[in-house]
Write a structure and sequence with these properties.
about 45% helix; 5 strands; mainly alpha; 8 helices; single chain; about 210 residues
Length: about 210
């Protein structure tokens, strides 16, 4: 199994200024996306790409559920700034994650590239079509890779990076490595099995869980 017994993340402990004003150093959900995109992944290099909107969505969800709470991050990341996830047709979903992503793309902080990864096309395509339906955006390619632009990277290094301790960065790096190293199938199975209250409306529940 690709996850440890108690969580999708490793064993450790997580502070920003960009688009908001709430107590704590991470001021908005956009800050969180920037930090996740800047963190190291399985390659060990900063700014490793995150492939697919579904993976990014579940990554933000798991950050709130497993990282922020278990490593005392609630002291520096207010629950108020994080997206609200609800049970939707394809598991835990928040339109705010996609809205934040589009904002960062339009601001020139995040780059989007078409991906050649064909993994789990059926499940992710269904969720992506759902997002297209609620957003009205039908022009983007289905499979995408997200990474910080040079502008986005410089912004994080100047405004956000020093707000986190080395230990906090290690937590983020380990978290990103685990989420990006896992197959999308394994990631979805983990989320679906561990958070049944968030999949009550899922159209692909039996398919993901192999029922």
């Amino acid at each position: 199994m690709w996850v440890c017994e108690n969580s999708i993340v490793a064993k450790r402990r997580c502070h920003c200024v960009v688009f908001g004003a709430v107590m704590g150093k991470i001021k908005s959900s956009k800050d969180l996306l920037m930090l996740l995109l800047y963190a190291k992944g399985k390659s060990g290099e900063a700014c490793e790409v995150i492939a697919g909107r579904t993976r990014l969505m579940k990554m933000v969800f798991l950050f709130d559920e497993e990282i922020r709470k278990k490593f005392n991050l609630s002291e520096v990341i207010s629950k108020k700034i994080l997206p609200e996830f609800e049970a939707y047709d394809y598991g835990p979903f928040s339109a705010q994650v996609y809205d934040d992503l589009e904002f960062l793309v339009n601001m020139g902080f995040v780059d989007v590239n078409a991906s050649g990864n064909k993994e789990l096309l059926a499940d992710e395509a269904e969720e992506y079509e759902y997002w297209q339906a609620i957003s009205g955006d039908e022009d983007r390619p289905f499979q995408e890779q997200f990474t910080l632009t040079d502008v986005g990277r410089r912004f994080v290094e100047k405004k956000l990076k020093t707000e986190l301790t080395d230990e906090q960065w290690q937590v983020l790096d380990e978290f990103k490595e685990r989420v990006t190293s896992a197959s999308l199938t394994a990631l979805l199975k983990y989320v679906y099995a561990r958070y049944p209250e968030k999949i009550t409306k899922s159209k692909i529940r039996d398919q993901v869980l192999g029922r």
